[in-house]
Every structure is written in structure tokens, then in C-alpha cells.
Amino acid sequence: MKHSLKLTIAVVAGCLTSLVFAADATTSMRGIDVAAPSPAPEIKDYAGKRPGTEEPVARTFSTQPPVIPHAVQNFDEINLEGNQCMDCHSAATFQKKKAPKMGDSHFIDRDGKKHAEATGGRYNCVQCHVPQVDAPPLVDNTFKGDAVKKPVKKN
What whole-number distance in Å separates Cα of residue 66 and Cα of residue 58? Predict the structure, then answer.
């Protein structure tokens, strides 16, 4: 009886001690409690304003998709019924709108066949091409890239 009472007291004391240690909140590298929901990021303005008013952004490496140098928040959602990017960048309208033409690779499907319209795999522009915001880098880095040439403006 004496032995089981000591054992019970030891188990209860161990549980209480572990609860005290568990009460210490573990913090993440961001300095917040790991169990707390991540705060929403601050909404930043796009670096460019109206289409056609900004110079193209230089690419950082040779195979980088061009970034969008203008705001897109007032554009309609890209879906099967419409894609506002095509109003200026399609093969039929780019010269009239003085916008860069959509790349020739966007007209070739995965089987290598060329089409008159953008293929389904290349129709959602913002999947690869992204608008830029004026924001500081999230982490320090020294990346320089391999393409330091200025972009060529297409007419």
C-alpha cells in the first residue's frame, strides 16, 4: 500500500511537471507562437500602373518568363470564356496595341503541334508571368543572375 501511494504521487508530480514545461510557448523563426495562425501579409501596390506605360522588366536569367510590368488587379479572372491578356498580347493584336507578342512557344502543344491560338497549357498567363510589387526581399541573398542585358522593347 505504501509503495503504491508513493508511485501514485510520483506519477502525479511527473504529470504536473510536464504540464509546466508544456506551457512554455515555442516560437518560430518569425518570433511568433508556432501554434498561432500566420498573419496575413500586407497588401502591396503593383510596381507598374496602366498597361503600356512601363518599360519591360529585365530578366534575371535567360529562361525566366517575362514579368508583368503593369498592375493587373482590375483585370478579369482568366477562365475558359476569356483572358484579358490576349486583348493586347495575342498575335492578332500586339502590333496595334504596341505590346510584346505572346511567345511562339505558347502556340505549340505538348505533342509539338502548332496551333493558331494559345494552347491550353499556356493559356493561364499568371501561372508563369507575375506582376511585380515594390517590396523588400524576404531574406537576404546575393543572387546576381546571368542575364544582365536590358530588355529589348518589341514593336
Answer: 8
